[in-house]
Specification:
Elements (H helix, E strand, L loop, with lengths): L5 H25 L25
Length: 55
């Protein structure tokens, strides 16, 4: 069984963790923040009736 080369292990370890952190930060920043005063869409539906509102 070949010996593990420590330098390549450190390089791969740091590259993988840097990639994971970049992907997580991109995913978290891709969603717009929801402010309390604004609704996420300008479309409002009347939910007091049982009829479907086709858009």
């Amino acid at each position: 069984m070949p010996q593990l080369e420590f330098a390549w292990w450190i390089v791969n370890f740091s590259l993988i963790w840097a990639s994971v952190l970049i992907v997580i930060s991109l995913l978290l920043n891709s969603f717009p923040p929801n402010s309390a005063g604004q609704s996420s869409s300008s479309l409002t539906l009347n939910k007091t009736t049982t009829n479907w509102q086709w858009l």
